[in-house]
Amino acid sequence: MIRNITVRTPADTTSSRWRQIAASALIAAAAAVSTMAVTAPAAQAATFQDTCVAHPGAYASGAVLGVYATKRIGNDREESCKVYDAQNKLLGTTYQTNYGFYGKQAQGPGQINPPAQSPR
Question: What span is annotated as the signal peptide, if there is one (predicted)?
Fold first, then answer.
């Protein structure tokens, strides 16, 4: 007795190839999104300073000069951006606080700090 024979037509092969292409594109997109998520905090930290200095008009209408400064308050870092007009008149100050900034332990790539041992 002859068993069922499956014959592949060119249409079946084409749809299979499209599925492979779609899966590859999906994996590439996921990798790109995860890369952006990993690098976002570093980019965000520089953005406040960069926009303050390069684009002071984003913080006040008519601003032409932005002065960026940081101040340590305990373990927190307070960033400030003071913006001035063309006559050097202060138009406003914007603050951004990074809570626990100085309390973070520096870790190298792949370095894991073990949990603290309780005293016994």
Answer: 1-45
Those residues with Cβ within 8 angstroms of residue 85's Cβ, 6 or more apart along the chain or in another chain:
62, 63, 64, 65, 91
CA dist 24 and 75 (Å) reads 45
CA dist 19 to 30, 35, 36, 108, Å?
16, 24, 26, 40
Find tokens 């008009």 and name the residue: 57
What is residue 58's DSSP assignment?
G
DSSP state of 60: S
Rounded to an integer, what distance in angstroms lies between the CA atom of residue 82 and that of residue 76?
A: 19
Per-residue tokens: 11 = 């249409």
| Tokens describing residue 26 | 């999906």
Model pLDDT for residues 2-46, shown as the tens digit of each residue: 677 665 655 556 667 777 777 777 676 666 666 665 555 555 545
Sequence ranges of the domains in the chain: 15-98
